[in-house]
Design brief:
- The complex is a heterodimer of chains A (449) and B (233).
- Helix content of chain A is 54%, strand content 16%.
- Chain A is α+β, with helices and mostly antiparallel strands and 449 residues long.
- Chain A has three domains: 200 residues, 2-Layer Sandwich (Beta-Lactamase), CATH 3.30.450; 77 residues, Orthogonal Bundle (Helix Hairpins), CATH 1.10.287; 148 residues, Heat Shock Protein 90 (2-Layer Sandwich).
- Chain A has a five-stranded antiparallel β-sheet with strand order 2-1-5-4-3. Chain A has a five-stranded mixed β-sheet with strand order 7-9-10-12-11, covered by helices on one side.
- In chain A, a hairpin with a 5-residue loop joins strand 4 and strand 5.
- Chain A is rod-shaped and about 155 Å long.
- Chain B is built from eight helices and twelve strands.
- Chain B has two domains: 115 residues, Rossmann fold (3-Layer(aba) Sandwich), CATH 3.40.50; 95 residues, Winged helix-like DNA-binding domain superfamily/Winged helix DNA-binding domain (Arc Repressor Mutant, subunit A, Orthogonal Bundle), CATH 1.10.10.
- In chain B, helix 2 runs parallel beside helix 3.
- The chains are: A alpha+beta (449), B alpha/beta (233).
Chain lengths: 449, 233
């Protein structure tokens, strides 16, 4: 849809629904009224016809001399002019009754049917009876009341149905118009967001209707996207910065060597350093790729049953000489733990990162302790150090990529170790907390059984 | 770089579709005296490897035409047991397990330094036979695997268990360059590049005990690659 296109009314689901309901309502009302009318008319006509036949039989059996009087006595007092009767001579001339002339198309066969009496401007139901003396008897009855009924029914339909349908369509139209306006706003906002303005939010009125709820869900989603974009941006900035540093150094060295290096040895030193700088950049990229790979969660497929105490003891063995070099007392307390589902390589990387970190930040004479115990909620692995510690307000931040506290800036590293730890812990469904060791800090990994 | 056999050159097959990487590998190992053939895609690689005339195969995991794991499967199916090193790009770390399961002998993640590949090729060519020896000997160095004692000549050497494990690995591969990554992987079961100088510290501690002052150094550092145990003294 082109930007800002006006949504046509009939394309709105709400209006279409209103239209459909109105049509259904109108149809069912019509059917109902038609049924009522038809039932009433049929019953009434049957009643009238029965009466007419009965009367015709009675009159036909009278003596001709009585007939004329009876007709006159019968029809003349009828002020409502409902009953009609007439006795006509063989030539069609009127002898008695209130019918001025023979009705058109009246068949003298003893059945009741509908006929016109043009001379009296009448339409009646009548029965014609030929009499033995050659005269003809016609008895009829005005059924205008049935026509009236039809009028009444149509009138009622007009009065009831038309306004109801109009009202439904109007309400549907109004609601749709409101929805249309809201959707139009949403649409316009979405257009602006798509053009890159991520601060835009969809309008909500707090009414709590479906559209409002949808809008606030979308807004939440936008908040999250904006946050992720910010994260990405700062990670991107940090990657760029962290890659630029070693690469700039490599470039400068190579340039200097081209101008001033004269001996083979000088060249070799330069090249070695350049390679070391490139390795540093590559390691950074590797670490980032690994984090996103782990966060992608694909490795969960490779989980097997592993013994955490065994992994921890291997890592401890790996780091013992480092602790000795640094004159940090490294102690170990590993309870034999039940097997857990996990990725052996990643878990060993997790523990090694925690131990590596603790050793890095603990000054000579300090202590680092790696412990594993089985608690009621599962296994608890803890790495405790007596380093500078982490202030509580930074406990969340240290897991972010590239985070380096001011205190740690002088120490070698990329600020990726703890994000890696965090990603691995999350992959396994473990929780990671930072506590205070006074002095120093403790990283506690809780693994569910 | 040395070849394992002085009499006949090592026959190396490189299956790699990236021309630059292939050129690097081919020229590096040709210079080192290997007889190198190159295949640029899967089908060609399989055809060459299927002849069985190679001592070692270095193969990319992702290849046009026929994928590395498929070639490996076909070779092993045909009872061709030439050692294979799989190479693959960054980011598919768990591919390693699949590669080894499919019959690969080693796995290298790109980018790598040539020395790493060289050391791994040498290691595979000289893969130590499973020996029933209970005593390992390299020069004057002697390791009793039952008694768990180590002597250099007459001198008894006290080793910590972790040092014993490292020396055991070194003594089974004398005169062979062992990279830091190989040591981490095979001695400590650790598959990731550690940021710190972990391996150097371990080797340094062991060296202090093996090479006493005045003795000829047996544990040597190989510039840019790793370490090597030589039969010195």
């Amino acid at each position: 849809m082109p930007p800002g296109a006006v949504l046509s009314l009939t394309r709105l689901p709400m209006f279409r629904l209103a239209l459909l309901y109105s049509a259904l309502f109108a149809f069912s009302t019509l059917v109902l009224f038609a049924f009522i009318y038809w039932q009433t008319a049929v019953v009434e006509i049957q009643r009238v016809d029965g009466q007419l036949l009965h009367d015709a039989q009675f009159l036909g059996n009278l003596k001709p001399s009585d007939l004329k009087d009876t007709i006159d006595n019968r029809v003349m007092p009828d002020f409502r002019r409902v009953a009609h009767a007439g006795l006509f001579g063989p030539d069609g001339a009127r002898i008695a009754g209130n019918l001025p002339s023979l009705p058109d198309n009246l068949k003298f066969n003893g059945t009741v049917h509908r006929v016109n009496v043009p001379a009296a401007h009448l339409t009646i139901r009548a029965v014609g009876l030929p009499l033995p003396d050659g005269t003809r008897l016609v008895i009829g009855r005005n059924v205008e009341s049935l026509d009236n009924l039809q009028t009444v029914v149509i009138h009622a339909l007009e009065l009831g149905l038309v306004p109801a349908v109009l009202l439904a369509l109007g309400a549907g139209g109004l609601a749709s118009q409101r929805t249309r306006k809201q959707l139009q706003k949403v649409h316009e906002t979405a257009e602006r967001i798509m053009k890159g303005d991520l601060r835009e939010r969809l309008p909500t009125h707090g009414g709590g209707d479906d559209l409002d709820r949808l809008a606030s869900s979308v807004n939440h989603m936008l908040d999250e996207i904006a946050r992720l974009m910010d994260d990405m941006k700062s990670v991107g900035d940090n990657i760029a910065h962290d890659l630029r540093t070693p690469l700039t150094r490599v470039r400068a060295r190579l340039e200097r060597a081209r101008e001033s290096a004269s001996t083979q040895e000088e060249w070799q030193v330069t090249v070695d350093r350049a390679i070391a700088g490139l390795d540093q950049a590559l390691r950074l990229i590797t670490a980032l790729l690994r984090i996103s790979e782990i966060e992608g969660g694909r490795r969960r497929a490779a989980f097997e049953m592993v013994a955490l105490h065994q992994i921890a003891s291997e890592i401890a063995e790996l780091y013992e000489p480092i602790a000795e070099e640094k004159e940090v007392a490294f102690s170990l307390s590993l309870a034999e733990a039940p097997l857990i589902a996990g990725d052996r390589d990643l878990l060993s990387e997790l523990i090694s990162n925690l131990v590596d970190n603790a050793l890095k930040f603990t000054p000579a004479g300090g202590r680092v302790r790696l412990s594993l115990e089985t608690g009621p909620g599962g296994l608890i692995l803890a790495v405790t150090d007596t380093g500078p510690g982490i202030p509580p307000e930074l406990h969340e931040a240290v897991f972010q990529r590239f985070f380096r506290s001011d205190a740690s800036r002088s120490i070698e590293g990329y600020g990726l170790g703890l994000s890696l730890v965090d990603a691995i812990a999350k992959l396994h469904g473990f929780t990671l907390e930072i506590g205070d060791n006074n002095p120093g800090c403790v990283f506690i990994l809780r693994c569910c059984e | 770089m040395t070849t394992s056999d002085l009499h006949a050159p090592v026959r190396l097959l490189v299956i790699e579709d990236d021309q630059e990487t292939a050129d690097e590998i081919v020229s590096e190992f040709s210079e080192a005296g290997y007889e190198v053939r190159h295949a640029a895609d899967g089908p060609q690689g399989l055809a060459l490897a299927g002849g069985g005339n190679f001592d070692i195969i270095v193969m990319d995991r992702m290849l046009p035409g026929l994928d590395g794991l498929a070639i490996l499967g076909a070779l092993r199916q045909a009872q061709i047991s030439t050692p294979v090193i799989l190479m693959s790009a960054l980011g598919d770390v768990d591919e390693r397990v699949r590669g080894l399961k499919a019959g690969g002998d080693d796995y290298l993640t790109k980018p790598f330094v040539m020395a790493e590949l060289g050391a791994r090729i040498e290691a595979l060519l000289r893969r130590p036979a499973l020996s029933r020896e209970t005593v390992l000997r390299v020069g004057a160095l002697e390791m009793d695997l039952i008694e768990r004692t180590v002597r250099r000549g007459a001198r008894e050497i006290e080793l910590l268990p972790r040092e014993f494990k490292l020396l055991d690995y070194l003594m089974r591969r004398p005169g062979q360059v062992l990279t830091r990554a190989m040591l981490l992987e095979n001695v400590w079961n650790y598959r990731f590049i550690a940021e710190t100088n972990l391996v150097d510290v371990h080797v340094g501690k062991l060296r202090k005990k093996i090479d006493a002052p005045g003795e000829a150094p047996m544990i040597q550092s190989v510039r840019g690659s790793g370490f090597m145990l030589i039969a010195n003294g």
